[in-house]
Every structure is written in structure tokens, then in C-alpha cells.
Write a structure and sequence with these properties.
single chain; 55 residues; alpha+beta; Alpha-Beta Plaits; two-stranded antiparallel ribbon; 18% strand
């Protein structure tokens, strides 16, 4: 599985990018996940202030 991003809810704050231990997230207009790198650790989900990320 890969972390799912609700692009309508994402505010591109960057907290998920900072929290990801494998650098699978980048911030553009919204957060983007690299499915080839994501290991479903969930640290990004835990820090999202608007609940835009889910496993």
C-alpha cells in the first residue's frame, strides 16, 4: 500500500515531508508521495494537521 493524499484537504505545510524517514514525500502545490519509496510507516499521517493523509 501507499499513503493516500486528499489533495483537496492538503495545505502543503510540509510537516509530512519532514516526518517521512524514507523521504517519500515532496511538497508542490500539495503533498506528493513517491509510491516506489513509500514504506507505509505512517509518521506522515500522524503529523498532518488537516488529516489529509491516510494509510
Amino acid at each position: 500500500m501507499v499513503v493516500k493524499i486528499d489533495e483537496d484537504a492538503c495545505i502543503a505545510c510540509g510537516l509530512c515531508e519532514e516526518a517521512c524517514p524514507v523521504d517519500a514525500l515532496t511538497i508542490e502545490d500539495v503533498a506528493k508521495v513517491d509510491a516506489d519509496i513509500c514504506e507505509d510507516i505512517g509518521d506522515c499521517v500522524d503529523v498532518c494537521p488537516v488529516d489529509a493523509l491516510s494509510l
